[in-house]
Write a structure and sequence with these properties.
This protein is about 50% helix and about 10% strand. By secondary structure, it is of the alpha/beta class. The strands form two sheets. It has an eight-stranded parallel β-sheet with strand order 3-2-1-4-5-6-7-14, with helices on one face. Strands 10-9-8-11-12-13 form a six-stranded parallel β-sheet, with helices on both faces.
């Protein structure tokens, strides 16, 4: 249901201030600081060990020197540098703190301490250290660069940009500072400025892989897919093992439906993000139906993103509150798939038992769905301008009992606030269709179809299983009759119209070939697809021709406002689902619009959502379990008008009886599941699987 996962940003930090030898001190600095202590010859020998990358020997020698000459500042500096390389963070921190105490006016001591504190996962300490370095030496662009990175991570973008603008002015020849500046501009939504800053980094250093990857990520995230592919390929040419670039490339190729190019990477996909470097967990959901590997990817990604965050505990309350406070955390409280699904849920909560809070950290788009959210909840918090720490503090001050992550690993997520522990119970809900692999997420909201017992081992969370479907709907939203005609959409008036409004990256070559066989079997039929861009359209038409189908039998639907989009479903006869990543909100749209959809239930969560909503709608006969069964059914329904009519009649009856169409019924089950999870915490029990009965 979520958009493609936001490509990660790589921050390249300048390793050390003015130190060709890695000591953090120039030769003149060493002489000035050490003439009263250890002999110069001993310092030179120690520095030589460092330059030879004999870090363990150098550290041992430095420690021996310091036992005899405890005020030898160069030895403290080299001890810290060696310990940091060796991963001995405690020794590195102590060394640089001793150096800073001995020489409080040496900016390099505070700067190097900042590096170590970043390694340690202490952003507040790192920020303070970098600021001390800058106070001593305002021209230290490297400290401003790294301070900017710390501020970006906290969402303090205005402060970060101010520091980074100064760094760029001080050292315009340093590619790293332009890269970090671009990262801040990108997060601030200043995309064209970010693009220019990445390009300045590449002008300063054409082989700077980090900046080129980040430029590719920006292009991918904002729809410039052809340019993203070019940048990712350049990264892989320089570094063939760059996992993030390969993940971005295959995801981009999938969106373009460039299956020939995608097949060049087929051998690498299975292990991408499983072994080697972590990749965004979302990036391969549509490329393979492999729940065990998706769990491994999610765990690796969680460890990389959140491994340094130590969650604080939440003190257990003395008594149950009168109302449990539920917090929805999302960037999508506007005209977005998530709000299309939860608008009815927000309004249907039992106000006598629950207090509902919305925490919006996305762009404030003033539309009807934003207004619906603000009206439906008890308190609406616009936290887009707050830092992570401030969001956590607000949630704790409000005493939120249950926090719902409605983004997971999708675009615009701030799941790191959950890593700090927002609430006693934290739930992966709706936005990301699969496990997050993160220890700080206690539960995943599911149902017996999307997460059957056979797949239990492939999610890290405990499961709250609702009785019918985990996906909500809004039974108060009417679907209008279309005011236009088929011809207005480029559809033939008397043809059988198959449709699939799923995003292009979900379409695989095998599934498309199956659709083309169906078109061949159903004379005059057409396939109505959602148009993502011109490149994908051209590739799909070319693939149809390869399959022996007239490319003009593909009709492409452009974006329309939601009410018009729902209305146009009535021009189609039968909706078709994709495979590894199927229809989610799109499947719900079909059912609310009265359009039957045929799915093949796969293995992973993302491949079973359409089956879930069909079961809840009482339309089990539209769920298949093999490609052959799927193909047979869609052809049969397209060629047997009576059979399709019978299903439509059943469909009409289910609108008044099936659980899928009852928002209040869904809400009561949803609340029961969350309350059961909270009661376990309140009783001092660990999270456990919970089944809500009908």
């Amino acid at each position: 249901m979520g958009k493609s996962g936001e490509p990660p940003v790589k921050i390249s930090r300048v390793p050390r201030s003015g130190a060709a030898d890695g000591s953090g001190l120039s030769s003149a600095g060493i002489a000035g600081l050490t003439q009263r202590v250890a002999p110069r010859s001993a310092i030179d020998a120690l520095t030589a060990l460092y330059r030879q990358q004999r870090f363990a020997d150098a550290l041992g020698s430095a420690q021996a020197m310091l036992r005899e000459f405890p005020d030898t500042m160069a030895a403290w500096n080299l001890a810290g540098a060696c310990a940091r390389v060796l991963g001995q963070t405690a020794i590195a921190e102590e060394s640089f703190r001793r150096l800073e105490a001995l020489s409080p006016n040496f900016a390099g001591a505070a700067y190097n301490l900042g590096l170590v504190l970043e390694d340690k996962g202490d952003p507040a300490g790192a920020e303070a250290a970098y600021k001390r370095a800058i106070a001593i030496d305002p021209s230290l662009a490297q400290a401003r660069n790294n301070l900017g990175g710390v501020l970006i991570a906290q969402g303090r973008l205005d402060e970060a940009i101010a520091q980074l603008e100064q760094a760029c002015a001080l050292r315009p020849e340093l590619a790293e500072v332009h890269n970090t500046h671009a990262n801040a501009l990108k997060k601030a939504g200043r995309l064209e400025e970010a693009r220019k800053a990445y390009k300045r980094a590449l002008e300063a250093q054409p082989d700077f892989v980090t900046a080129r990857f980040n430029l590719g990520s920006l292009e991918q995230e904002h729809g410039e897919i052809t340019q993203a592919v070019e940048e990712y390929r350049a990264v892989l040419k320089a570094q063939p093992g760059h996992s993030l670039a390969r993940a971005g490339l295959v995801q981009s190729l999938a969106k373009m439906c460039d299956w020939d190019a995608l097949e060049e990477h087929a051998g690498a996909i299975a292990q991408l993000g499983v072994s080697g470097g972590a990749v965004p967990a979302f990036s391969l959901l549509a490329l393979e139906d492999a729940p065990a590997r998706q769990l491994a990817r999610a765990r690796n990604w969680a460890m990389q993103r959140f491994g340094n965050i130590a969650p604080a505990s939440i003190e257990r309350r003395a008594a149950r509150p009168e109302k449990l406070k539920i917090g929805y955390f999302s960037a999508d409280f506007h005209d977005h798939a998530t709000m299309h699904l939860i608008a009815g849920l927000l309004a249907a909560h039992d106000s006598d038992r629950f207090e509902i809070h919305a925490f919006s950290y996305g762009e404030a788009r003033e539309d009807e769905y934003r207004a619906l959210a603000e009206q439906a909840v008890d308190q609406f918090h616009d936290v887009a301008c707050l830092t992570d720490d401030e969001i956590v503090a607000l949630s704790r001050k409000l005493e939120i009992d249950i926090a719902l992550d409605c983004k997971g690993y999708t675009t615009g997520s701030r799941s790191q606030v959950f890593a700090h522990r927002l609430a006693p119970v934290q739930v992966n809900y709706l936005g990301y269709p699969g496990t997050m692999g993160a220890g700080f997420i206690d539960y995943i909201l599911a149902d017996p179809t999307v997460l059957p017992d056979a797949q239990r081992a492939h999610v890290s969370e405990r499961i709250i299983r609702l009785p019918h479907t985990y996906q909500p709907g809004d039974d108060s939203a009417a679907v209008p009759q279309p005011s236009d005609t088929r011809a207005d959409h480029g559809l033939p008036g008397d043809a059988f119209v198959f449709c699939c409004f799923n995003a292009s990256y979900k379409i695989t070559r095998d599934r498309f070939a199956l659709w083309m066989r169906a078109l061949g079997a159903v004379e005059g039929s057409v396939l109505w697809l959602y148009r993502s861009d011109a490149v994908a359209e051209a590739n799909l038409r070319m693939e149809a021709k390869r399959c022996g189908i007239d490319p003009h039998r593909l009709v492409f639907a452009y974006h329309l406002p939601r009410t018009q989009h729902l209305a146009r479903h009535r021009h189609a006869n039968l909706a078709l689902d994709t495979s590894a990543y199927g229809a989610h909100t799109t499947a719900s749209d079909c059912l609310w619009a009265g359009l039957p959809i045929v799915t093949r239930a796969g293995d992973q969560f993302a491949a079973r959502v359409a089956a879930s909503v069909l079961h809840a709608a009482g339309l089990d006969e539209l769920v298949t379990h093999s490609d052959a069964e799927y193909e047979t059914l869609i052809v049969a329904l397209a060629t047997d008008a009576d059979r399709l009519s019978t299903i439509r009649e059943k469909f009409a009856r289910s609108r008044t009886a099936a659980p899928f169409f009852d928002t209040k019924l869904y809400t009561r089950a949803f609340e029961a599941g969350l309350e059961a999870a909270w009661k376990r915490w309140f009783a001092g029990h660990p999270p456990a699987d919970i089944t809500v009965t009908a």
